[in-house]
C-alpha cells in the first residue's frame, strides 16, 4: 500500500481561534482563495487531491472544486451528504481511501481541512508532514480553536515555494501565511 503526503491547512487568530457559530470568524476573500488554491492544486494534471473534513467544515460548493474529492467524516450520517463524494466513519478510513483502489492511482495529496478533531488526529498521523497555518494577527470572538501542536515535531519554515512570506492585509486585518514542516527524527 502506498502512502500519500498528508497536509493540514487552517487559519487561526492570535488565540488560535478558528470558528464561531459554525462559520469562519472573519471575511478574508484572498485568504480563502489561497486555501482553495492549495487544496485544488495538483502537480500531475491527471491526479486529484483528497479533501477530508468533519461534517461542520465542508467547503461551500465543494463538488464543483477542480481536482478534488471531498470526504466527510461522521459517525451519525447514514449516507453521503450532497456536498461530498464520500462518507467515512473515522479519519483512518478516510486516509485509507487514498491508498486503495479505485482512488490509489488517482490521489496525489491528502488535505485535512478541519475541524478540531480531524486536525488533532491528522497531525498525529505518521504521514502528516506539513501544516499550512495562516496566522491572523488579530483577535476574534471564537468558540472553536485549533488544537495544540507539538512545536518540537513541527518547525516553522522561513519560506516555502508558492507561499508569500510578506505580511498580507485585507479589510484592515493583517495576516501571514505560515508553513510548519515535520522534523525528521532518526
Ligand atoms: N479557520 C479554519 O481554518 C477552519 C477550518 C475548518 C473549520 N473551521 C470552523 O470550525 C468550525 C467547525 O469545526 P468543528 O470542530 O466544530 O466541527 P467539524 O469537525 O467540522 O464537524 C464536527 C462533526 O464532524 C464529525 N466528525 C468530526 N471529526 C470526526 C472524526 N474524527 N471521526 C468521525 N466523525 C467526525 C462528527 O459528526 P457526527 O456527530 O455526525 O459523528 C462531528 O460532530 C466552524 O466554525 C468552521 O467554520 C475553521
TrEMBL record:
GO terms for cellular component: mitochondrion. It catalyses: (6S)-5,6,7,8-tetrahydrofolate + NADP(+) = 7,8-dihydrofolate + NADPH + H(+). Belongs to the dihydrofolate reductase family. The lineage of its organism: Eukaryota, Metazoa, Chordata, Craniata, Vertebrata. Pathway: Cofactor biosynthesis; tetrahydrofolate biosynthesis; 5,6,7,8-tetrahydrofolate from 7,8-dihydrofolate: step 1/1. InterPro entries: DHFR, DHFR-like_dom_sf, DHFR_dom. GO terms for biological process: dihydrofolate metabolic process; folic acid metabolic process; one-carbon metabolic process; tetrahydrofolate biosynthetic process. Residues 5-182 form the DHFR domain. Its EC number is 1.5.1.3. Keywords: NADP, One-carbon metabolism, Oxidoreductase. This is dihydrofolate reductase. GO terms for molecular function: dihydrofolate reductase activity; NADP binding. It holds the Pfam family DHFR_1. It comes from Chiloscyllium punctatum (Brownbanded bambooshark).
